[in-house]
Amino acid sequence: MKSVAELLEEAGQLPPDQRLTLAHRLIATTELVPPSDVEGQWDNVIRERIARYDRGESKASPVREVLSRIDSRLNDDR
User: Fold this and answer.
1) Separation of alpha carbons 14 and 20, rounded Å
2) Which single residue of 2, 16, 37, 46 could bond 6 by disulfide (Cβ 3.0 to 4.6 Å)?
3) 3-state secondary structure 3-69
4) pLDDT tens-digit profile of 26-53?
């Protein structure tokens, strides 16, 4: 069996997209919830959010505004 150092050295020679794929697959092997369940749940959330937006029940916000609200909430928790 190869050591982690050897594996990292070999992985470092892969193109960036293949390194990302490898990293994703390694992380997926440690997940407690099967990825298909999580992905399916996120698909449902995304579809519902899009449907609410399409029906005019929610609105888009500029990314700066969203990040500012997140920063404020994080600072309030400190």
Assistant:
1) 10
2) 2
3) CHHHHHHHHCCCCHHHHHHHHHHHHHCCCCCCHHHHHHHHHHHHHHHHHHHHCCCCCCCCHHHHHHH
4) 988 887 766 667 888 889 999 999 999 9
Please check whether residues 26 and 53 belong to one and the same domain. Answer: no
Number of structural domains in the chain = 2
C-beta atoms surrounding 36 within 10 Å = 8
pLDDT digits (tens, 9 = 90+) for 56-68: 999 899 999 999 9
14: Cβ contacts below 8 Å, ≥ 6 apart: 22
